[in-house]
Amino acid sequence: MASTREWFETVEEARRRARRRLPRSVYMALVAGSEKGVTLQDNVAAFSELRFAPPHIADLPAARDLATSVLGQDIALPVIASPTGVQAVHPDGEVGVARGTAEAGTAMGLSSFGSMPVEAVAEVNPKLFFQLYWSGSKDQMVQRTERARQAGAKGLIVTLDWSFSNGRDWGSPAIPEKIDLRALIRLAPEGITRPGYVRDWLTHGGLPDLTVPNMGVPGEQAPTFFGVYGEWMQTPPPSWDDIAWLREQWGGPFMVKGVMRPDDARRAIDAGATAISVSNHGGNNLDGTPASIRALPGVADAVGGQAEVLLDGGIRRGSDVVKAVALGARAVMIGRAYLWGLAANGSAGVRNVFDVLRGGIDSTLLALGHSAISELSPDDVIVPAEFSRGLHK
Ligand SMILES: Cc1cc2nc3c(=O)[nH]c(=O)nc-3n(C[C@H](O)[C@H](O)[C@H](O)COP(=O)(O)O)c2cc1C
Q: How far is the CA of 333 from the centre of ligand 1 (A)?
């Protein structure tokens, strides 16, 4: 959606605007987290414990190269959009994320719980990775991944770190199964305080229908989020052999998302993963696990260059990206940061977030005296004792 709203200079400002613009229940769905929020907070706080080596002041590079590749796709900066269900955040939805990331020259992951058909998203950003949970029968999984492949998805992300944690101390938003008259009456008080949000939806043809089209069969009525969540809860968790089967049937670039342990990283590689993401699902799963950045050095060590290593969780600024790359990540994935941008200003807000990160990465590289992200190493970062919280054992 074309927009004249102002550019924001930090991800934190995007968050503030998202909070002002979204109805409380939608904003709280983005805050997410689980239980006491220990992991949610640690994902962000851990970056502040890492410091940079003192900057150089002369002989600095005149230009910096931020480009790399992930799952075979060239990207202009080492940041891609992590898959998230962006239900109801903004009418631009996943197509808006596709536009913002395409304009930024990077790739995106599309959640199987997303609100827009994979065909429409891939058309806008062909650098698309489809994300699947282990849900339903193997036939259903094949049907869903084949549909994504037909649509042009270039890679598959299988997310394994979900154990159906429920409850958070700050309360879970009451999300209706669908937006019918009863739901509208219940949500009306929130809508009245957020007229801009309601207007955006109404001028785009109506309120979100909260369905998940990529989990259904094309041409049939799309299932609801909660219907599919039920299917997922009833599906027995996969074995590593199951993951190897999925990898085999997909055949292309394949990422295992949610790896926090060196032994699991090695098993993912044995199962054929071409990439892994060191991730605790943005603090939305088992609360009390350490920040993902604390696990990164140990996992990167275990992988030893046999697969691409990504990191997601807590990235809020360009210097966070630089810290992650210095400690062994090829690139990072962001979740809340672009969701806040999308909420604040549609696809332009997504682009804005990537531009903020690009600027931050570039200025950090300049200060550290590097002309390319490939020059980063652990020597650029001061890691305090006990940073890994015993994770390397
Ligand atoms: C609202 C929300 C929805 C998410 N939905 C998914 C999803 O459908 N699939 C998935 O693999 N990860 C999902 N995630 C996790 C993100 O992909 C990513 O791991 C996490 O957001 C990274 O942390 P950050 O938000 O601090 O950047 C979701 C995260 C949030 C906040």
A: 9
Measured distance CA(212)–CA(383) in Å, rounded: 42
Tokens of 158: 């299988």
Pocket test residue of 22, 26, 82, 334 for ligand 1, highest count of atoms within 8 A of CB: 82
State whether residue 205 is helix, strand or coil. coil
Cα of 53 vs centre of ligand 1, distance in Å, is 31
| pLDDT value of position 5 | 61
Cβ atoms of residues 155 and 72 within 8 Å: yes
Q: Which residues line ligand 1 (CB under 6 A)?
A: 29-30, 32, 43, 82-85, 111, 113, 131, 159, 257, 279, 281-282, 284, 312-315, 334-337
The pLDDT of 150-154, averaged and rounded, is 98
Cβ-Cβ contacts under 8 Å for 253 (sequence gap 6 or more) = 71, 72, 129, 154, 155, 156, 274, 275
Query: Which residue's CA is the closest to the ligand 1 atom numbered 21?
Result: 335
pLDDT in tens, 155-213: 999 999 999 988 999 988 877 777 777 777 777 788 788 988 989 988 988 888 889 99
Q: What is the 3-state secondary structure (H, E, C) of 214-233?
A: HHCCCCCCCCEHHHHHHHHH
pTM, whole model, 2 decimals? Answer: 0.96
Query: What residue owns the CA closest to ligand 1's atom 2?
Result: 84
CA distance 234 to 136: 8
